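ERR on first pass: missing label on line 2. Operator R.T. fixed the label and resubmitted. Corrected input:
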Amino acid sequence: MSKYIMEAENVKKYFPIKGGLFSKIVGYVKAVDDVTLKIKKGSCVALVGESGCGKTTFGRTILKLLEPDDGRILFEDKNLAEIKGKKMREMRKNMQIVFQDPNSSLDPRFTVKNIIGEPFTNFTKIKGEELVKKVLELLELVGLKKEHLYRYPHEFSGGQRQRIAVARAIALNPKFIVLDEPTSALDVSVQAKILNLFQDLQEKLDLSYLFITHDLSVAKHMADNIGVMYVGKLVETSETESLFEEPLHPYTQALLSAIPVADPDYKVMRAVLKGDVPSPANPPSGCRFHPRCPEAKEICSKEEPELKKVGDGRLVACHLY
Amino acid sequence: MEELLKVKDLKTYFYTYEGVVKALEGINLDIYKGESLGLVGETGCGKSVTALSIMRLIQWPPGKIIDGEIILDGKDLLKIPEEEMRKIRGSDISMIFQEPMSSLNPVFTIGSQISEAITLHQEVDKKEAEKRSLDMLDLVGMPDAEKVMKQYPHELSGGMQQRAMIAMALSCKPKLLIADEPTTALDVTVQAQILDLIQKVNKEIDSSMLLITHDLGVVAQVCSRVAVMYAGYIVEIGTAKQIFKNPYHPYTKGLMHAIPKIHVETKRLEVIRGVVPNLITPPSGCRFHPRCDHMMDVCKKKAPPTVKVEEGHYVACFLHGGVK
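pass 2 clean. output:
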């Protein structure tokens, strides 16, 4: 058995753009373009980047919620492309996802008992009192109370709803959970509680996470490894500490210096990037970052840089290295 | 420093079917000339209601400003007639909202929207207004400003839309700019651009700013003074340094500990227990007492008065005085 729970190799996901009279395909949005990322058992890997960079698409693709167009996805050494139908359904017990907005990921007409009990009724034969017992155990695990059992999602605050979504995700003892911006819709004091909950659960249940976020300080707090994405490409992966100590890719550097630090003494010289994130439907030639890069050279607009090993355990896609 | 705007005992309530939401319960706030004051707090604490109350944009029904004074340049904005208030909005005080897309009119070009603001408040003809609009777009660093004048909002990216909003808000050189979560909908790299821009332009036209945000990082980088709100009250106000380095109120301390930090190693985040109270039936006395670790008997009985703890630093908590 390998030490990785999830290995995604050269994963591509393109969405067709249709236009014209006969809805001909006129182009592709290259949402995820050749991304390779490995997640060790028991670790938390964060995927950071700005909106539209493909981090959510990647998260969904490796769970096969979206069918990849190319590449290999190995979950515990099993190639997901070869697993279909009933077998895939069984596999899904092991991999779960928590979405950003608990308002839209919980059915408003279901009670908490039904929401958290649904995985059990779908996958196991547990029912009746035993089901209630299971649900209560989960409620306790995520910090909710017994009296919440028969309430509806609208009766809860945002943080509590996210706890319900987490309880549902961990119901069947998964090994791997994709956390897709799970705290972006929450206030800082609530965010702190939910982040602590994730850490507790990881320890108790021996989980591995892919933590998708745009907030680098959250990524730093949670993750052992970080991958930085830009317009469908992975531009840098590194251990969390070394990434923050010495970001190598110019985009990572810009991203780090753009974070507002909650300390008035810490006035950073911000390498403010010019321009906006380009559209993934029509990405720039060569290195996709070159039009905004302060250190762009001639080669950058012509040749696409490969992910190269720089230092130990770090990969950077940049012509500077 | 010279005072520009003074808010005194401002109370705004919303009358809903479920009961009266006491959104603001006696806000006191001074904004000085040329400064940028940050107003921070969690969702539902009354930050935006404060801004809308200052602009007198609270819609009745259900909302109503029931008490207090808002004094701009010696004039009480709550006592003047609506026509006069309309002249102040957009010229003396203007506002930038969180979502540029929903605050720009989709059926008019950027140029005509900015010119409209200028012709309404300044006595210039259309040509001159257009010229000034173009100057404003240049000032906010809009690339290809001449083309953008003829474009519609949907043709611009989020960051560019926010630039256009800023150009419009500052086109009449307001004395006070209220920015309500101006960068929340933007990506970090674009947020950095916009924050730099707001500061730069604000300095250039010499106006004050009230920056409303939930992001403590943004406040620390941009504001000279900070006010912390909790459940309809301002619980602490002081210079950015005082608030971030030496917070007095237990809620402010809790907030500071709850943020994950880039430059400090934290294994576990400290949390404030409990949840934000509902403002229809808020807790008695100090509204923070059910969540506070230092709660005393007096906290349940009456609301703490605001006391001075050091020069320019005020806090509303019985731990630091006010118990008699």
